[in-house]
Amino acid sequence: MTVEDRTSWRIVEASVTGPHHVRNGLPNQDAHGHREFGPGLLAIAVADGAGSAARADEGSQLAVAAALDTAETMLTGDRPYAGAEWQSFAERYARGTLRRFDDSLRASSSPAEFATTLLSVIVAPPWFVCFSIGDGFLLAERDPGGIHLLVPPPLDREFMGGTVFLTSPERVREQRLELLHDPRLRGLALCTDGLIEGLLNYAQDRGGRACPVAPPETIAYFDYVRDPAHGADGLNRALSSNDFAATSGDDKTVAMVVR
């Protein structure tokens, strides 16, 4: 895979255990993964297991597997090409991912023990399907256009009864499903909520509320992983640095796709 090829993507994923989990002897409860289906066509996902859930690390792994398995099932035949077909595809993808995740928990008497968020993207340029439940966020790089916070984390999430998980009864009502047509998009970064304070800034909206925004300097991460000499090791070192550790005690995971 070469970065110069317009149909090719460079994929770099990194995940580090948060300082809070290290101190308490807990595993990394985030998960990530990707799967490629043909030239320029792939699915990628990150998930963040709930810290209070007994089997959160398993839940996040099951969520990522559900997203990637569903994408593979749906993309093995002819893929949609018209806008209306892509909208139907996105809706079926969201339903299929949740159904597959539920199926993986049928043998469990306590599904809530597997509580997890999920953020997944199907990359099929110029179309992109993004499905999100919880507080993960998605950065996008456009050329021209710079960095955009395509899917922000929920506002005031700490005051709204907690994060919504794939095991929450209100998950469908609170899900985010985005269909984007953008031939100028050249990079994506899927992030779990442990990176909110480390990567995002806040600005006031017209109502005076603090809203998350992606600072322009975030483009440095896209430039870094676009260089074939740089891989997951360097990104892991950055996430493990004292500066990042000081922003949050949570696990930190990012999955980046660039071309």
Automatic annotation (TrEMBL):
PPM-type phosphatase domain residues: 17-203
InterPro entries tied to this protein: PPM-type-like_dom_sf (IPR036457), PPM-type_phosphatase-like_dom (IPR001932)
Organism: Paractinoplanes abujensis
UniProt name for this protein: PPM-type phosphatase domain-containing protein
Pfam families for this protein: PP2C_2
Domain of life: Bacteria
